[in-house]
Amino acid sequence: MVDDGPGAQHVLDPQEGECVLCFAARAVAGLGCDGTPRWLERFVHVRVPPATGAVRRLSAAGECDCVVTGVRWTLVREQLVRDVHTDELSRPDRMPPCAGVRRTSGRPCRHWQRVRPGSRPVTPG
């Protein structure tokens, strides 16, 4: 839910069964990135028990949401779109629906994979 009341900050909540990275990617696409892990933190605040290290695990060294969902993690190959002219893989213009996780899970769904150090992240669609 987005709070659009007078003077309200935009607050977005995870959808039922939505994983942390699908939520963060959706939030960044819709409301932008402010250079902090605010959407990862929002997910943890709303869905994950406070004792977990979900944000710490996903956001090394305090990286922002768009770095985590665009550089550190990427969609698995099956969710990417191939450009017929260049043969390059990129993110789809519209993210696929989340594959789903348990309500209190701080883990990504099966649509995401960690980008190995030294490898090239997939370009946005």
Show unreliable segments.
1-9
**Bulk shape:** globular
Structural class comes to alpha+beta
User: For the largest beta sheet, what order do the strands appear in spatially?
Assistant: 1-4
Structure description:
The protein has helices spanning 20-31, 38-47, 54-58, 65-72, and strands at 73-75, 81-82, 89-90, 112-114. With 125 residues, the chain is of the alpha+beta class. The strands form two sheets. The chain has a two-stranded antiparallel sheet. It has a two-stranded antiparallel ribbon with strand order 2-3. It starts with 19 loop residues before the first helix and ends in an 11-residue tail after the last strand. Residues 85-94 have a biased composition (Basic and acidic residues).
Jot down its keywords.
125 residues; alpha+beta; two-stranded antiparallel sheet; 8% strand; globular; disordered N terminus
Kindly summarize this structure in a few lines.
Helix content is 28%, strand content 8%. By secondary structure, it is an alpha+beta fold.
Protein topology:
Layout: H1 20-31, H2 38-47, H3 54-58, H4 65-72, E1 73-75, E2 81-82, E3 89-90, E4 112-114
Antiparallel strand pairs: 1-4, 2-3
Helix pairs in contact: 1-2, 1-4
